[in-house]
Amino acid sequence: MDYKPVGVGKTVRNARRGLPEAGYWKKFQSPVLVKEYGMVTSLEFSPIKPHDLLVTAAMRLQVYNGRTSQLKKAITRFHGQARSGSYRSDGKLIVAGDDTNIVQVFDGASRSVLRTFKGHQDPVHVTRFLPNNVHVMSGSDDKTVQIWDIPSQKAVNVFSEHTDYVRSGCVFAGNANVVATGSYDHTVRIWDVRANRCVTTIATDEPVEDVMVLPGGSVAAVAAGPNVHMFDLLMGGRVLTTLGNHEKTVTSLCMDSAGGRLIAGSLDHHVKIYNVQSFKMMYSMAYPAPVLSVALSADDTRLAVGMASGVFSLRRRAVSAKEQALAAPQRARLGTHAHFTRGAAYKGGDDDLRIEQRRKRSLADYDQFLRKFEHSRALDAVLANNRTGLTVVSLLQELVHRDGLAGALAGRDELGLDTIVRFVVKFIDHPRYTSVLIKVAETLLDIYGDLLHQSGRIAELLVRLRAKVRTELRLQQDLTMVLGSMDMLMAACKVSHAAAVPAADAAATEKPSIQA
Predict the structure, then answer these.
(1) Contact 85/55 with Cβ under 8 angstroms?
(2) How far apart are CA 385 and CA 400, in angstroms?
């Protein structure tokens, strides 16, 4: 039977200690500020390279080159405020609404109007291409959501269950039969295009400013008031969590290409990045004006933020040579080592016969002594090489399980005792190590209790140990008193609440008397 090495425990590290996330987002530097003709209400990057930026502001759509960030073209075929410019998945067509109640589809290359959809009675604030590329969704202040067929130029679905302005909406990636819209009636509705009805309604406490569905289609992020709510769509819209790090209304949401980070812009002049797995805020950026729109390019190298002052900011992240090499793997040259080792990472198919080869791990010095049941030398080895406290405590725990702790501590001189006693004094108050080190201290006193006074060095260490233990005991007593006080306060609150509820019910049911 093979020897099993000592299992050193693992501690949970704080994700913020190294701040790798902050370092990544700090690379978005050298912001370029561009003044537009009005408030920048919508931003979107083209899904194809070089990922041109589409800016919706005032009565026009402006396209900025993805490489040079210079103005490439402008679309001015509007008679009112332009709204919600959006690309099709192939980047060839652009759709937008305006305040004259119409929806227009443009050719991205020639800027000519290809289709005009008329059917809304109020300004159109939401336009999106469906994943099938032949339908367009639109949402309007007339409280309706319509699905338009591009070839026939007719509305194939009209949804009118919203009771207030429809100001946001999104489509489900890979599913052209379902769309989601948010309204100022404090609801988010999921519409089934095939059944021509609403299949899910999610209620919020504030008007909905933006809604987006995370990759996979099972979670929806909803911006309502100063909060971003995460809803589980598979559970009928159950609330997963609420991200309340903003001070004012959250106006815009977007995701990174991997679907792991949610970016939210708010009227409090901040853009904040959240981890969608832990639902924690990872980074924050400040801007000089209220933020109305945010967008991140598909290659995660450019971050655009539109503001109410009519200015949009464009930050660019420098891509390292290593990242470029990983993104574009090179073919190994003939005759090189990489050429002869190609395919080594191939995992094989599910029906293939796999022959596993386990590589033997070299044992640490203390593991080698433990394997030979030389417990005392194993303890000396783990203490002599300046290893971490967790490693030493793991070995001590192993000795306790083997009933070898007393044998490992016995027969030591003053120098051998000094090392182990110093370790006990240093870590006796560590919460993870206390239970093990108490057993070590008790064993030391049982073995050397009558001889410890003969060494001045050991006696001094024991005095320090006693002082440290007394300090910890006083701290535990104080904490116990605080917990007792909190229990009394909680009990008093429950009693007062129980007494107040019947009195309130009696006051509500009592009828006023009528005087003659």
Answers:
(1) yes
(2) 21
- Taking alpha carbons only, the member of 38, 16, 86, 80 closest to residue 306 is 38
Sign of the four-CA dihedral 39, 69, 209, 140: positive
Sign of CA dihedral 334, 337, 338, 339: positive
Residue appearing with tokens 């946001």: 168
Distance between CA atoms of residues 191 and 195, nearest Å: 8
User: Which residues, 6 or more positions from 441, have their beta carbon under 8 angstroms from its beta carbon?
Assistant: 424, 428, 465
Higher-scoring residue by pLDDT: 107, 425: 107
Please report which confidence band the pLDDT of residue 16 belongs to, taking 50, 70 and 90 as the band edges: very low
Classify the phi-psi angles of 91: left when phi > 0, otherwise alpha if psi is within -120 to 50, otherwise beta: left
Higher-confidence position of 405 and 165: 165
What is residue 204's predicted lDDT score, i.e. its pLDDT?
A: 94
Q: pLDDT band for position 107 (50/70/90)?
A: very high
Angle between helices 389-401 and 434-448 (to 10 degrees): 60
**45 touches 53 (CB < 8 A):** yes
CB 16 within 8 A of CB 277: no
Residues 6+ apart with CB under 8 A from 123: 80, 81, 83, 97, 98, 99, 100, 101, 140, 141
Predicted confidence band of residue 421 (pLDDT cuts 50, 70, 90): confident
pLDDT of amino acid 165: 96
